[in-house]
Specification:
InterPro entries: DnaJ_domain (IPR001623), J_dom_sf (IPR036869). Keywords: Chaperone, Membrane, Stress response, Transmembrane, Transmembrane helix. It comes from Rhodanobacter spathiphylli B39. It contains 20 helices and no strands. With 463 residues, it is mainly alpha-helical. The longest helix is centred in the C-terminal third of the chain and has 32 residues. The chain is elongated. The two termini are 67 Å apart.
Length: 463
């Protein structure tokens, strides 16, 4: 078996892929548990690296220059008359000391992946080659580069042990503290999210109940699988799945999903996070909502004949339509809510759009005109969204210090207050002077004017 086959790589793999595959296999083949397997794996790793680097040198070397053998220095030249047997043993040069940095880093990562910081400290202290301060500093610099490149799995205390042993845990070590913080988080996540079994995963994530451990294991398995539309749509029918996955990712990664290990499929992760985002109208939300609506429609079509038979002792067309219509009501309400949310998000953003500046005045003007000709209902349909858009935009940009207005329940109550105000005004209170549409339109224009006055001059001129 070739070294690339042992690492599970193609023959044209680059150096980065070789190191990544080697680091992944070190989790299963540790030098303490399987010394022979570790030696075989390390030999394959070194052979693959040598082949990759030799191929890179051959590709960059000029084709017309022959490769020359290095010549011996004059001080080491042996006269032709002297034989090898004539040289005394006392002047034979000692074998040079060779320290394999790559093999040492691999062994360090294998020790750290065990999660025992005390054992790691004892193992490092027992390496006699590190008693040389010069070599220790060199190994520390090389180890830090490998840590940033591979982010091997290890807990925080093992990372701190490594940095402290090689004097890399202080400001004079000349490294970026933010980069080190991200490196520590990436290594911790790679160690915590090793998918071996539910109990170990639950212990690393400090999950208490069996249900929590099972859910964490299930979510992790889903995120590690390749993205397939058939499976994603099937899971997305359940409305709690996107939120469950998003909550697990946020809790496990401390709201840094970009630092999750490479075993997590990024397409899968991005889809579920976008599907669980209630603040935006995202493509995954629309796709899953459409699938659920289609499923409810098919369910209504299948159940309608049975319910029709129960009601009339025969299949009747009208009861079937009623059943299908009732089943589709939630889907219709959801579609209206998505359209309304998209309109609100479009209007409250700060990006300059000339058309957005005149949305509220146009809606108010159209609603007042309809009310003047006796069409109060259609006029209110136009004026009420104008009031909500103007007030929502003002809260979003200028009144964020009033946290109570950022609550969804408060916004829903204020939205429901619009038809209540309309009913009160139509009942006779103030009806002699103003109509309900005029009052609501005036409130909308007041909020719109206040928002326009508080915009910067340059921004207000281009919006």
């Amino acid at each position: 078996m070739s070294p690339f086959e042992l690492l599970g790589l193609a023959a044209d793999a680059d150096e980065r892929a070789i190191k990544r595959a080697y680091a992944q296999r070190l989790r299963l083949t540790r030098p303490d548990d399987d010394p022979q397997g570790f030696q075989q794996l390390h030999a394959a790793y070194q052979a693959a690296l040598a082949h990759c680097r030799a191929a890179a040198v051959d590709a960059t070397a000029p084709p017309h220059e022959p490769v020359r053998e290095p010549s011996l220095p004059l001080s080491s030249a042996v006269p032709a008359a002297a034989g090898a047997a004539d040289l005394p043993a006392a002047i034979e040069p000692p074998a040079p000391f060779r320290f394999d940095l790559a093999a040492f880093c691999s062994a360090v990562f294998a020790q750290a992946s065990g999660g025992d910081a005390v054992a790691l400290q004892a193992w490092l202290a027992g390496r006699q080659e590190l008693w040389s301060l010069q070599l220790k500093a060199r190994v520390g610099r090389y180890l830090l580069n490998e840590l940033h490149e591979q982010a091997p799995p290890m807990p925080v205390d093992c990372m701190e042990t490594l940095l402290r042993f090689f004097d890399l845990d202080h400001a004079l070590a000349d490294h970026d503290p933010l980069a080190m913080l991200q490196l520590t988080r990436r290594s911790r996540l790679a160690w915590q999210l090793q998918d071996d079994d539910e109990d170990r995963l639950g212990a690393r994530l400090e999950l208490r109940t069996p249900l929590q451990r099972w859910r964490a294991h299930w979510v992790l398995r889903q995120l590690q699988r390749p993205f397939r539309w058939s499976r994603v749509l099937w899971l997305g029918v359940n409305v709690v799945v996107p939120e469950r996955i998003a909550d697990f990712v946020a809790e496990a990664s401390d709201n840094h999903p970009e630092d999750l290990p490479e075993t997590i499929d990024r397409t899968q992760l991005g889809f579920w996070l976008a599907a669980a985002n209630r603040q935006r109208v995202t493509r995954p939300r629309l796709i899953l909502g459409g699938v659920r609506s289609t499923g409810m429609l098919l369910l209504g079509i299948l159940l309608a004949p049975l319910l029709s038979l129960l009601c009339t002792d025969s299949i009747a067309f009208r009861p079937m339509l009623i059943v299908v219509g009732v089943v589709m009501v939630p889907s219709a309400l959801w579609a209206l809510w998505m359209a309304w949310s998209a309109l609100v998000l479009w209007y409250i953003e700060r990006e300059p759009r000339a058309a957005r500046k005149f949305v509220v005045p146009l809606l108010c003007a159209a609603g007042v005109v309809l009310g003047a000709v006796g069409q109060d209902g259609p006029g209110l349909v136009l004026i009420a969204p104008a009031l909500w858009l103007s007030v929502r935009r003002y809260w979003y940009h200028h009144a964020s210090r009033y946290a109570v207005f950022n609550s969804g329940y408060v916004r829903l109550a204020l939205l429901l207050a619009i038809p209540v105000l309309h009913a009160v005004l139509n009942a006779g209170l103030g009806a002699d002077l103003l109509s309900s549409g005029d009052v609501i339109a005036a409130a909308a224009m007041l909020a719109w004017t206040a928002d326009l006055r508080r915009q910067p001059r340059g921004q207000a001129s281009v919006r």
